[in-house]
């Protein structure tokens, strides 16, 4: 798929701006603070409903304005679509697909597919398991509505349960309530574990291929889903998870939160047989994270038959020219929107100059 244009009104530092994109590589360049990341953020929002960099949606509305409006036109195999969002100064968001209001985020997600990469995503390898679970959740939610709804439900029930577990006044005679919630957690949780396992198995092959192309030493990358759950099918996982949750109930009451389930799982990342989460160098982390992201693009494409839009925020500055070129070569066949302060490579692309919340054809 590809985005042919975005329209930004009172969004961040954009008063009113239309930006048109070409098929292949689009380079947004300009000084720091010009609004390059803001433009990518708008695309991400229209894809995933949330911002990659803030949970405070109020911040998205131009200072002093009542509401922001953003809209993208997306061409897919079977037609052109628009996705639009209005964000009010109090942070309330409304979404429309093809001009029709959409009530639940689940209906938006998947219309416009994106894969986002920024220097922060390097944390994917070294940071806490939460970052790697987020990687799975973002990738899978865009491909499978069933995943997205199981995830929303799981998180909602877990939050209720944790609130109860934290509350010393009620927790001692709450077993009936907990049993209801635990059955729900087992059902939604099993759906998550089952899909994540399968996803990581397939991702592993794609990521290893990209990694071999990127890494100089031809190191061997292997990804596996890390979970204590053993059952092979979803029904088995549900039973297993329920048992494990119930077994840890007394412990969880003492600790004040649920300690068993997919919200504790991880992706094991192995490089030449050692745990990359602990031992990878900066350069190795970057190569692994990139390979995982390009693997995500491939997973999306094979699952949906549409290539997602790749958003590369500020990833060039850390790379030497050889690696910059290598990265650009990997984007062949993928509509890519890349931001940087200066773009020196002599490659075929559409250049867009961003200056103080305005966009102009670059040179
Ligand atoms: N709600 C807002 N209203 C107006 N300006 C904003 C808002 N949020 C951020 N900005 C401005 O946007 C600019 C940062 O834009 P950004 O896209 O991050 O820059 P860069 O081009 O470096 O990626 C800053 O100048 C900031 O003051
Ligand atoms: Mg930026």
Could you walk me through the main structural features you see in this protein, from its secondary elements to its overall organization?
With 363 residues, the chain is α/β, with parallel strands linked by helices. The two termini are 26 Å apart. The chain folds into 2 domains: 1-113 and 306-363, 3-Layer(aba) Sandwich (Rossmann fold); 122-305, RecF/RecN/SMC, N-terminal domain (Glutathione S-transferase Yfyf (Class Pi), Chain A, domain 2, Up-down Bundle), CATH 1.20.1050. It has 11 helices and 15 strands. The strands form 3 sheets. The protein has a 6-stranded antiparallel β-sheet with strand order 2-1-4-5-6-7. Bound molecules: adenosine-5'-diphosphate and magnesium ion. Magnesium ion is lined by residues 36-37, 314, 339.
CATH architecture of the largest domain: Up-down Bundle
Name of the level-1 CATH class of the largest domain: Mainly Alpha
Global structural class: alpha/beta
CATH topology-level name of the largest domain: Glutathione S-transferase Yfyf (Class Pi), Chain A, domain 2
Please provide the count of β strands: 15
Could you give me the name of the CATH homologous superfamily of the largest domain?
RecF/RecN/SMC, N-terminal domain
Number of helical segments?
11
Q: Bin the strand percentage.
A: 15-25%
> What percentage of residues falls in helices of 4 or more residues?
40-55%
Main sheet properties = 6 strands, antiparallel
Uncertain segments are: none
Give the integer mean of the pLDDT values: 95
- Strands ordered across the widest β-sheet: 2-1-4-5-6-7
For the terminal residues, how far apart are their CA atoms? 26 Å
Order of helices and strands: EEEHEEEEHEHHHHEHHEEHHEHEEE
**Small-molecule components bound:** adenosine-5'-diphosphate, magnesium ion
Rg to the nearest angstrom?
22 Å
Tell me the overall shape: globular
